[in-house]
Amino acid sequence: LTIWLLSGIIMFEAAKRITNPPEVEGMLVFVVATLGLCANIVLAIILHGGKHHSINVHIAFLHVLGDLLQSVGILLAGLVMWVRPSWNLIDPLCSIGFACIILFR
Q: How far apart are alpha carbons 44 and 60 in whole angstroms?
């Protein structure tokens, strides 16, 4: 239930940002997403070895892969906003997309 509530809040805030898009620090988003991507890669490598021995480790590995893919999406959005600051509409659109992914996982 909490995940539905948080996803709804993310979507609500994203909708407000579509009508009134704020400036987004694309470089900061890119750097933080890169750090998140690196952390997810390390976790995926660690979990990969044990995924054949435990269903719990296998599920954790799949969860980390999902997070890794979202990190790539955020990294690309950050890069776009860094290179083209006027394309800040990508921020709320990605937020809505990621909220949907979280809801329907």
A: 9
Distance CA 102, CA 36 (A): 17
**Which amino acid does the sequence have at 97?**
G
Distance set, CA 84 to CA 14, 89, 93 (Å): 19, 11, 16
**Contacts by 18-23, CB closer than 8 A, 24 or more apart:** 18/89, 18/92, 18/93, 21/88, 21/89, 21/91, 21/92, 22/88, 23/85, 23/88
| CB neighbourhood size of 33 (10 A) | 20
33-57 tens-digit pLDDT: 999 999 999 999 999 887 788 899 8
pTM (2 decimals)?
0.81
